[in-house]
Specification:
The protein is of the alpha/beta class and 420 residues long. Helix content is 39%, strand content 16%. A nine-stranded mixed beta sheet has the order 1-2-3-5-4-6-7-8-9, with helices on both faces. One of its GO terms (biological process) is lipid catabolic process.
Amino acid sequence: MLLNSPVRAWRLLGLFLLIAATIAATAVLSGGDSERAQGATAKAELPPDDFYQRPNPVPEGKPGDIIRSRKVSPGSPTNRELADTWQVMYLSKDAQGKPVANTGTVMVPKGKDPATLPIIGWGPGTQGPAFRCTPSRMIAKGALYEQWVINDMLKQGQAVAIPDYEGTHPEPKTTYMTGKSLGPALVDVVRASQKLSETKLSADAKVVYRGYSQGGGAALWAGEVQPEYAPEQKVVGIVAGGVPGHMVDLALALNGSPASGFLFNALAGLDNAYPELNMEGSLNDAGKAAMAEMTKSACALELIHDYANKSVTDYFTGSPLTSAPWKTAYRANTLGGTTAIKVPVFQYHGTTDSIVDAAQADDLHKEYCGHGLKLTWKTYETGDRPPIQDHLWPIQAGNADASAYVADRLAGKDATSNCE
């Protein structure tokens, strides 16, 4: 029972999260046999694996250079039938521009000439800070809740490169929601897919950055850094859904909410990216215990279940929402104030969203339009859906539009814009 169906994957993930948050809701998505959701499958640990141990020191080289790689056979029969799959460790840059070793997955559709294929840099959504939640490990187990989207791209003849993001290793220090880290991680896993000789992907392949939720933010951050950081990449478009663009607005909306675990994950991510924030020094005893447990064991399910309705005042002696050093980090990792993006963008969101505030996404699209970006903005009705499911639904509702937008960019069609 594997997560290869969009209906099944999102129905079950949403159902598990809703139960965990004690939110009563009627199942509204159709589907067949029950499947295992990410939070549940992640409980069964994979054996210890030296592949993910980061080298110290980080080897010299260029971003995207391969440190190590291995071909893998994913747990899902569908995945094995669709693609040849590699796990890679590659050079990248952290939020402060220093070399770092990241891991990820490259999937190349079978039965195609790899040299002719486009590459989708897919930014995965929130998995959780614990090592067991790492996207490449979830793919290997057949338990990634977004796998159906990846499989859809593979069926369309698109190679897919998927980063684990920075800090996903056995002693995790993930940089969740830190855009200055997410962008290079996504750009460089695409580079790695092209540099790994076994894939036979072309250095001149057309590239699209795509993702939803955290992954939608990663896609836009990749677009922001690419023109200067990776000008050789032939990027033709960006598809970004459920984008968490404005850090302060998101933090204020999440604080004390059923989804407050995502706020604490983001605060820990910023602290890992910017150690000078010294989050440890402002945590109370309950906060120290909660953050340690979160880093050790929390995937998406636990972020909802174990940290729901908590406020920063429950865990902090001072407020990371208002202090000057934190505000500086928020500003540095907020989208929209300026833009370096040079390609067309499709941005989409739910009309309501209990996890990633819909109003800040609307503001972001207007800011991008004001900067002259060629952007298509679309919303999907979610007002009749319960909390959490209102965030999950648009990735399914918007998949056909997102896929069509990608196909048009790859075909070289002129992009339109509905900016006013």
